[in-house]
Design brief:
cytoplasm, alpha/beta, disordered C terminus, small ribosomal subunit rRNA binding, nucleotide-binding, binds magnesium ion, ribosome biogenesis, disordered N terminus, binds guanosine-5'-diphosphate, Rossmann fold, ribosomal small subunit binding, 3-stranded mixed β-sheet
């Protein structure tokens, strides 16, 4: 159990509607007899396009993506519901080859754990780069009895489409996949086909989650992911992936009348967050020249949160050096990993 799991339901209960309104067009799907629902794990080495795939299937940006590998550290459920199916996506962290640091070990465990209760696995690979890590992942997957669909992503990067056929042939000989499908998550090629394919592997049953709900994660968790994404984007390759964001305070203040002036004040949520980096040099980079970078990160993150949560946000960011935290099991636990 992590902190983010624990807080899953407090804030969601109050603000589910705001989140649903943001993600939904307001139409409630009708549930018929042939409704299918289930869990789908998206597995593959870092950078093959797992987050991009889930986001495009959902039609919304939920899991964060980046050019840098390993921006997803947590399990994220994205939920796609329409008239005849509900697909609950689990976006797993990558499975790592070298378990050098404690955090990588945890991520490996999380990736395997994510498979415990799923109905189908999407094993994602890159059209152009089939590597040793992919084989390692496949070895782990082979230990389960789950149907595995091979998703050959980034098909847009293959100029001559006929080149994909021998590749598909090679894959089908290396493992007994339930199906093989080439897609481009980025361009949206063949995603309808993939969606239908997924549905065909799900059991007949009513929706698992409220059809209006897109995520079972708390706003607290989403807030920390948004901040992390903004830092990664703002600092390019200068800051490694091993930074973390801790939400220190998340307090809703309802709309109220100012006792002094009698004026009505809008509802606002105060969020204080600490960004932990490994070295002083990284702190300087995150803060930027005269604080310019952290200021922009704060503005961008706040705007995204206001759009997502549907209310005014007051965001305060701190940057701290927590030396070697990714090596320290205790420090990791205190951060909720
Ligand atoms: P993850 O680590 O597996 O979650 O990968 P991401 O979803 O973060 O994607 C990694 C990079 O690959 C990003 O720069 C994406 O824009 C890019 N990418 C993802 N899917 C595609 C695709 O279908 N085609 C191309 N050309 N790039 C893609
Ligand atoms: Mg990802």
């Amino acid at each position: 159990m992590t902190d983010t799991d624990k807080t899953t339901h407090d804030h969601d209960a109050a603000n589910e509607n705001a989140i649903a309104a943001f993600f939904n067009d307001g139409s409630t799907p009708k549930i018929g007899e042939n409704f299918r629902a289930g869990f789908v794990a998206i597995v593959g080495r870092p950078n093959v396009g797992k987050s991009t795939l889930m986001n495009h299937l959902l039609g919304q940006k939920l899991s964060i993506t980046s050019r840098k590998p390993q921006t997803t550290r947590h399990r994220i459920h994205g939920i796609l519901t329409d008239d005849d199916k509900q697909i609950v996506f689990v976006d797993t962290p990558g499975i790592h080859k070298k378990e050098v640091k404690a955090i990588n070990e945890r991520m490996n465990k999380a990736a395997i754990l994510a498979l415990a209760d799923v109905d189908l696995v999407l094993f994602v690979v890159d059209s152009l780069q089939w590597r040793e890590d992919d084989l390692l992942t496949l070895e782990k997957l082979a230990q389960t009895n789950l149907p595995i669909v091979l998703v050959i992503n980034k098909s847009d990067t293959v100029k001559d489409k006929s080149k994909l056929l021998p590749l598909m042939e090679e894959f089908s000989q290396s493992f007994d996949f339930a199906d093989i499908i080439p897609v481009s998550a980025l361009r949206g090629h063949n995603l309808d086909g993939l969606e239908r394919l997924i549905a065909s592997y799900l059991p007949l049953r009513p929706p698992i989650f409220d059809p209006e709900q897109i995520t079972d994660r708390s706003e607290r968790f989403l807030a920390s992911e948004i901040i992390r994404e903004k830092i990664m984007r703002a600092s390019g390759d200068e800051v490694p992936y091993d930074l973390t964001v801790q939400i220190d305070n998340f307090k809703d203040e309802p709309a109220h009348q100012d006792p002094e002036t009698g004026k009505w004040r809008k509802a606002v949520t105060f969020i204080d967050a600490t960004i932990f980096v490994e070295r002083a040099g990284q702190k300087t980079i995150v803060i930027g020249d005269k604080g310019s970078r952290i200021k922009q990160v704060g503005i961008d993150a706040r705007l995204d949160m206001e759009k997502l949560f549907g209310r005014k946000i007051m965001l305060t960011l701190w940057v701290k050096v927590k030396k070697g935290w990714s090596d320290d099991e205790r420090a990791l636990s205190s951060l909720g990993y």
